[in-house]
Amino acid sequence: MAKGNLVVGQSGGPTAVINxxxxxxxxxxxxxxxxxxxxxxxxxxxxxxxxxxADLYAEPEDVIEAVRVSPSSALGSCRLKLAxxxxxxxxxxLRRFDVRYLAYVGGDDSQNTTHxxxxxxxEHGYELNGIGIPKTVDNDLYGTDHTPGYGSAARYVAISxxxxxxxxxxxxxxxxxxxxxxxxxxxxWLAAAAALAREAEDDPPHLIYVPERPIARERFLAxxxxxxxxxxxxxxAIGEGVVWSDGKPVSGTQVLDRFGNPExxxxxxxxxxxxxxxxxxxxxxxxxxxxxxxxxxxxxADRVSATDRDEAYRAGVEAVRLAAAGRTxxxxxFERDDGPRYGCRCxxxxxxxxxxxxxxxxxRFLDPAESFVTxxxxxxxxxxxxxLPSYGRLRAVxxxxxPVSVADSHAW
Length: 412
Known about the structure:
single chain, Rossmann fold, seven-stranded mixed sheet, four-stranded parallel sheet
């Protein structure tokens, strides 16, 4: 393998731990003499195309350490679909900056970009070792047990639903309907994490709907009636991509982004949470609220999962190790250990496998009879999220008035 520079970039929506992967790349690269320096793409692949690169070895160690625990994308991100006609310019930039190693942190579109660059360089006789580093709060990346970023976003959802659920419980006489919407276009992993919020049977959420299972309107109304009758209020968690039984988005959106994905909550329609809240409230004849969380779950540094941050760092380290060993066209994936105690290892998977589809929630994680999730999903999510805060609850011991004596009754 020829000596040269390593270029690294971050793409797509950020996570609260994506910078840990970046720092893992920088620190591990210093241990390999064949890597002269690490160049950072400013704003993802757009930075490479614009030759907007930063020497990351020039950053002081205290800055690097601060970045490791900072949210969002320190290098800047983008959502650019690389065109075939741009590949020759990519190769030209790689040659002129003597880049022999590529690490790209992102979701499935970013992994596809890495794959295409690696393949183009191979076809044109340019030696480049390219490794993809996974990232997405949606946890829908194919080929890995879970993705860095999901654990922290799931923790954000679980804490938000627990805190918002307390509010909903105590405000049930005012707003007895609450719908919480989590990110999740194709998969309900984040909405499912809301189940961690429940400590008692009547705690929110009472219902969970995910994109993997279409919602039948009559069944939804029956679920709402059942929970409202049982608890005096109904709290619902949903993924943004939920659809009706006819396949139409609950949000009603018809707007697509440049990748052909629906833009939920855009000008093309209301949020799914708003729609379901209105349907439930109209049916029950009550008021209600809805909560839509977008980028906050992606950048909440105060709710980071320690496991998630550690694994994000490990993914960056492993990417450099693979590239330095002459491996290419791979993504760093996580494989969970068997047994009751949580553990996982980094394993390489071909980038071609990542683009085989979306990792959706399996049937064993969903309980259609209760419109909820099964205990098995809690075992999957809990070690990625960590311990959640617990809050006090009054016993509300009733007080009875003392009996009225005969003398008192005569006094009246």
